[in-house]
Every structure is written in C-alpha cells, then in structure tokens.
Fold these 3 entries.
Entry 1:
Amino acid sequence: GAGVSQSPRYKVAKRGQDVALRCDPISGHVSLFWYQQALGQGPEFLTYFQNEAQLDKSGLPSDRFFAERPEGSVSTLKIQRTQQEDSAVYLCASSSDRGGREQYFGPGTRLTVT
Amino acid sequence: GESVGLHLPTLSVQEGDNSIINCAYSNSASDYFIWYKQESGKGPQFIIDIRSNMDKRQGQRVTVLLNKTVKHLSLQIAATQPGDSAVYFCAETFGSSNTGKLIFGQGTTLQVKP
C-alpha cells in the first residue's frame, strides 16, 4: 500500500512569493497533520484536520499560513508572501485514529526561500 | 552505548552492541509516547509507541521504557545494525481534549560503527 506522499519534494521561492504544498494521506485516514521542521530540529506542529474539519490550527506561525482539506483527503498548505524564516521542511502525517495515534509521515517538502 | 541527559546530540555504538537512547519529556499530563526514526532526506518513521498506563513495551529488536515518576522515556535497540544509523526522536501527546498533535524532542543521532 502507498504511504503518505507529498509534492513537490523541493521548492525554491523568492521572498514574497506564494507557495502551495500538497499532501496525499494514506487512503482512508481520517486524521491529517502538518508539521514544520527546521534544520537540526524536531518537527513542530502546525495544524490538524479530522476529515475536512480543521480542528486545531494553533501552530500556524502567522496569518500568512493557511491549510485546507476540502474533501477530507488531499490537503494543501499555502504560505503567502514567503519570508526567509519560512525555509524549512514541511511534513505531512496521517492517522487512521481520530485521536491521531500512530501517525505516518510523508517524505516532506523542503522549502527554501531566497 | 547510551545517551544521557536531555540533549546528547550524538550516540556512537559498535555494530552488534545494544543502544539506549534517552529522552526527558515535558508534561506530566502526557498520555501517549512515540519513538520515531528519521533518515536523511526522509520523513520520520514510526518505531514503537507506549501509553502512559504502561511502563514497558517490546517490539522487534526494540524496547521502550517509560518512567512517569521522573518523566523519562528510553528506547533500547538490541544488536544495533548499520541500518539503524539515523536521528531518533521521542514525541509525546497530552491533554484530555488533545487532537493528537505530537510534541517532539530535539533528537539523538545514532551512529553505528562497523
């Protein structure tokens, strides 16, 4: 079975550009998470969806960050007016558990803002 | 080989030896703990989890120990192999209304010498 996939794997954006990062979770997984991982650090929570409902967005660092999961499957993380501090790996994880137990991660999208 | 303290960034062990990676977690209300392995350029890979009502859980070549009194978690890897070389993160979730968001530690790099 396919795991979590993310695209693109690498993205270079000029400061001020908007970017959109895609996550395809494992089929049937109700819970979907986005995390941000800075170089040499552990992942940090950004936001959580249960099906199409965004139940927790407490980790989004600013209103430039927006996530959606309109049909309860694929999710998109959008960053507007990118800044250099947005450079990081963005990880998506999914879980079959509504409480998010046993999360399976995708390979991540490495975003570099120049 | 054994890592000690909260932030020993690198643990180096001989192939075939047992490895112990330690982690101190932050919240006494945490009720679920997970160990992840992350290889370069990849997303975190689920290894083993443990709930707060347990103090030990065993998997294939891995054992997780939980000491709630001192808020300490450890991962033991038996007969360490070169393929075990990676960064290992502990993660916790907490809160009665938690949405499953994971709080990750800083990570320990495991280097296996042939």
Note: The radius of gyration of chain A is 13 Å.
Entry 2:
Amino acid sequence: DIQMTQSPSSLSASVGDRITITCRASQGISNYLAWVQEKPGKAPKSLIYAASSLHSGVPSRFSASGYGTDFTLTVSSLQPEDFATYYCQQYDGFPWTFGQGTKVEIK
Amino acid sequence: QVQLVQSGAEVKKPGASVKVSCKASGYTFTSYYIHWVRQAPGQGLEWMAMIDPSDGRTPYAQKFQGRVTITRDTSTSTVYMELSSLGYEDTAVYYCARSVSGTDYWGQGTLVSVSS
C-alpha cells in the first residue's frame, strides 16, 4: 500500500496567517493527489483534486501543488472557517490511502 | 444538485452485520464511482472500498476483504455497504463519496455503533 505522510500533525495559527501543509507519498503517484477538509460532526469536504485543481466553490485562498512524491497545501490568509483537519489522499492505486491528518487550531 | 443521502444511524451487537445505503441523485449514477470511507472516534479517514456502478466492479481494502460487500441498484441509484462480523473497533461514522478524479461529493455520514 502507498503510505501518505503529512507534516505537521498539528499547527496553531491566527486568522490572516499563511499556512502550508506538506504530504509525502511512499512512492510516486503522479498527480493523483487530493486534499480533504474535515470538521467535527460534518461530512468531509473535498478541496483539491489532481494535486492542484480546486473543486468548484473552494475559495481561491486555497492552493496546492506537487507531483510525484511531494505535495503541499497552502492557505494564503486563514479564515475562521478554515480551522479544521486536513487530509491528503492518494488515488493512484488501490487501496486509496489518506495521510494521518493535520489539525489546524486557533492560536 | 448532486446529493448523496445515507441511511440512518445503527446500533449493532458484536458479531452482527450492518447494511448502510447511499442514495445518489442529481447526476448520471453510472458515470461516477462510489467509495466508502470510515472515521472511527478520534481517528483519521480510512478508505474501505469502491464500486463502479456501471459494471459492479468492487476493489476492497485488504483489511476489509471478506467482511465488506458493496452492491448497487441502478434502478434506484443506490449503493449499499454491508459489513459483517462487527467488532467494537468497527464503531465509526461511515461515509459514501463520489469520485471521478478523487472524491468530490460526500454523503452526510452514518454512525454505526457496536455495543453489547
């Protein structure tokens, strides 16, 4: 199985901050990488597909990049609704696998 | 609009089975895969299995092989996930999600509690 490793596991930030989360795959996955946002008690929300493409309706403060094994998710100016846990997910091969998550907390 | 509506919460005893449904609407059912992902309390997201509604093909995660069965009813645009031999560790929220390139829409989730 392809292992996905995110860093950091958690971070504290303030509204307006720029944050970056990294995700590393244990083998090359081309651009078959998604980012998912999860909030307690709510269904996950898909933010990014194909490593860098925003799903419809996702604010432009979210951006992502990467190819092969190394990927990043950036939020340019953190908003109150962005405090959540973020997961990367590879869909290059079965089983699909998620990173362990990065919890973004209010400083 | 695209919607995935899941069945309601379930409470099951250890050793029992549970069947969760996911009814799709707002798009061509056979054009998108449906995945099942679960989240145990305090844990991360875990991919379980997928079904291609056009042909019924179902890749499963090895961890659930032999215990999970994914089926679909194209007449009602509904996908079913059945998990057998439930243990306490299967207590989780189970989500269905649609995909074509990674997941896009998710169901609201179904809490399955395993308790004696």
Note: Chain B touches chain A at residues 35, 37, 39, 44-47, 50, 59-62, 95, 97, 99, 101-109 (CB under 8 Å).
Entry 3:
Amino acid sequence: VQLVESGGGVVQPGGSLRLSCEASEFTFSSYGMHWVRQAPGKGLDWVAFIRFDGSDKFYADSVKGRFTISRDNSKNTLYLQMNSLRAEDTAVYYCAKTYGSGSRIDYWGQGTLVTVSS
Amino acid sequence: IQMTQSPSSLSASVGDRVTITCRASQGISNFLAWFQQKPGKAPKSLIYSASTLQTGVPSKFSGSGSGTEFTLTISSLQPDDFAIYYCQQYYTYPITFGQGTRLEIK
C-alpha cells in the first residue's frame, strides 16, 4: 500500500487549498478513505471520510461546510478541497485507507503540511 | 463520543511492561483501534477490534476491553517502543481519538 499526499503549503486566512492523495499498490476503488490531521505538537484529529464509491461522506463539525472530500477512482486519487481556511486548520494532513467496507484505518500516508498564516 | 486516555504520559524502563487505558464516553462495543506514532512520522496501526493485532505487529502488543473501557499493554519494552500511543473509536461518526499517551524512557 502506498499513499502519497501533496498540495500542502502556506495560505492566507480565508484562502483555499486542495490536497491530493495518490494511492497505489492496492485496488483504490474498493476502499473507503479518511483524512486525519494533526496540528503542530497536538494529537490526531479526524477530518472526513468517503466511502469506496463516493456514495457517503462524513465530516467533523469543525470543517463541515468548508471542506469537501472527494475521489476519482479512475485516477486512484483522493482529494480534500479546503475553503475559508483558518489559522486553526494549520496541521499535517494525512490520508488513510480503510480495511474492507468499514471505517477502520489500516494504512496511513506520510502527510502534507498546511500552514494558514498571513 | 469522547475518548479519554490515561495516563497522558508514562515513564518506563527497557524491559518493563506497561498498560495504557482508554475510556469511551458511551458504549462502542469493540470498535476500538490503537495507533503508535513516532516523532515526525505518520501513525502506524497496531490493533483493531479492541484486541486484534494488525498484520506484522509483534505479539508484545495486546489489547483488551469492550463497551467503554479498553487497555493497551506493551510487554518487554524496547527502545523502539517509546512513542505516543492513541486510541480511536470507529463505532460512529464523527470518529474520535484519545488525546494520546506519551511513553518515555525512564
């Protein structure tokens, strides 16, 4: 299993950013995927989940209405569109693969850093 | 669902056996996972369904519990085991993590 995140960087408050997670070495279209973040020096914070076929999506209250999770199974890629970014969104963002049809995580990517600062 | 780990930090010596507790604010059956994270690295999955070892995880790690109280036990501590450990419930959304337990070398 390989999960490679990209798209992180520095963005001003109120700005937007789109993260990508390119998957390989497994059948991407068969598994649900999560985004989990970690603010500097803090613990793990679940962000969003999408089912294998995109039919269901769930979000943390802190990002609902601002972030959108999506996937392109033809490109083996997961996305996180982040709008109206705030300083408290500053974190390393990890994508994570689920096992089977459920929601438990078995593999993690290496993460991409998002910094929201003026 | 709020997940509360105790202790928040723990000092132990090589060779020791330690136990970390995770409590859920409501019943989650056995939908509980444990992760290990080392500085600057992504988390690593250790245990799922409260007590089942992820493939490749050594048997020195063990988990138990159901409902609202869970434990992670690590036996015969080695230098590579000193890390931060997180529990996570995946019983319902939003998925939630414990605040983490930092395991340090005494």
Note: Chain B is about 0% helix and 50% strand.
